[in-house]
Specification:
This protein is mainly α and 70 residues long. It is built from four helices and no strands. The longest helix has 15 residues.
Length: 70
């Protein structure tokens, strides 16, 4: 279940249009070995935008909770 949820979150990031998270999310979904880059990007996105009130705020936090499943 967590893996499906994680994939759904990554697809949302990939479709976000925000290069910071869309590029590493797309790369990871394409099978590239970029786990550390992806985690760092989401941590940065959470710092920069994690409390702005957008739909992604909760997704950043949930991804960071699930990142061990990558």
């Amino acid at each position: 279940m967590e893996e499906h949820e994680l994939t759904a979150i990554l697809r949302r990031f990939a479709d976000s249009g925000w290069e910071l998270i869309s590029v590493p999310a797309n790369a990871y979904l394409s099978g590239e070995d970029c786990k550390e880059e992806l985690i760092a990007a989401v941590e940065q996105a959470n710092e920069e935008c994690g409390s702005c009130g957008c739909e992604y705020d909760a997704l950043y936090r949930r991804f960071l909770e699930l990142k061990q499943s990558l």
